[in-house]
Amino acid sequence: MSQNRIRIFLFAVLVVACFIFLSEINFFPRLSPKSSSQKNLNLVSDVINLIRLNYIEEPDPAKTMNGAFKGLVDSLDPLSCYLDKQGVLQYSKRQEPKLKEVGVVLFKSYGFFPQVVGLIEGSPAQKAGIQIGDYISAVNSRSTLTASMLEANLDLKSEKAVPIKVKILRGTKSLEMNVETSLLFEEPFSYVPATGTSGILKINRLFPPCVKKIKEKIVPRLKEQKKALILDLRDCYQGEMEEARKLINLFLKEPKIGYFEKKGAALEILSSMDEAPLEKLPLIIWTNTATMGNAEAVAGVLKEFNRAKIIGLETLGLVAKQDFFPLEDGSGMLLTSSIFHVNSGKTLWETGVEPDIKIESEDQGTPSYLKKSLSSPL
What is the pLDDT of residues 310-346, one digit of tens each? Predict the structure, then answer.
């Protein structure tokens, strides 16, 4: 192995060692005694020497560096991730309204294959036979084991309507199929009438101009309604907190609706102080396991203020803010920088939103949700 390549390789491992040391000393001082830091550094040193002396091939420095950064960042939590140049490009296009999708929502923990937790009704994925609970082990012949949750979801989107080859693990079976992609949502929301209610307002993505369009097109139709409106947040896993705040403000006017807690206990207070045009309209919220992130905040805040009844499944607890940091080589990192608390102080991070009325996880179709809604007094 050449001296330059050895230096680059060792530098990559050293970066990991430094991050381990700093994270233990600064981020988790109560959980990691100083002796643990020294032990981990000694372990890294042993690994470096073993690879240098015994590994049969010459490691690719760029690949080693990429892998070191990726393993370090992706292991922090499900939302933090390291993105290579291609990943940064995909991330930059995530809000494009014309992206084609297969119609699944994936959740992934570090070291595991991503699991299907949401399945869009009528989507190509549902028509192809993909089921909630399936694991996606490969996309277009590339393993998903080392992908982050963000990358796994982005890999199932395309700018063109082209089929995506997926490999699925279902129990003891391994299945392969080509799944078509299509434009699932013309708008970030949809609204349909439903007997016995004021209608079903489904939020597909909490990206602007979602709430602006709801105010223009839907709110005028609801102002004189008396029956409960259903706010369908199932499978809503994409969006921004500011748009979530505006959605909350349609139904609730309060000086403080919750806050983000940053490192060092710094707080960022959120309020919804504009006039709430639907504050007197009864409200039911539908959730499932694929109700993630800022959509969870909407459900959690409106439940906290007794403004809505939650029907569905418990959410995963992924309400946090991520900051993106571009790197010199075109790659980048998304790091969780603060976690969300509702007004009482309860955090939704890793706890999620508990429904008032649960449905059976085996039957997550709209008819089951609607039946529960109509039979449950507000």
Answer: 999 999 999 999 999 998 889 999 999 999 999 999 9
Residues 202, 106 share a domain? no
Burial of 44: CB neighbours in 10 Å, binned 0-12, 13-18, 19+: middle
H helix runs in the chain, sequence order: 3-22, 34-54, 61-74, 85-92, 124-128, 149-154, 210-217, 219-222, 241-251, 294-304, 366-375
Instruction: Look at strands 267-272 and 254-262 and give their pairing.
Output: antiparallel
Q: How many Cβ atoms sit within 10 Å of the Cβ of residue 230?
A: 26
In this prediction the pTM is 0.85
Looking at the domain assignment, is residue 60 inside a domain? yes
Give the helix ranges, DSSP H, for 75-148.
85-92, 124-128
**pLDDT tens digits, 139-175:** 999 999 999 999 999 999 999 999 999 999 999 999 9
> 347: which strand partners?
341
Give the SS3 label for residue 165: strand
Between CA 268 and CA 108 the distance in angstroms is 28
Q: Which 8-state DSSP code applies to residue 25?
A: I
Helix extents (H) in 174-329: 210-217, 219-222, 241-251, 294-304
Q: How many CA atoms lie within 13 A of 209 on its CB side?
A: 6
Out of 45, 66, 85, pick the residue that ends a domain.
Answer: 85
Alpha-carbon distances of 365 from 143, 186, 271, 286, rounded to whole Å: 30, 21, 34, 11
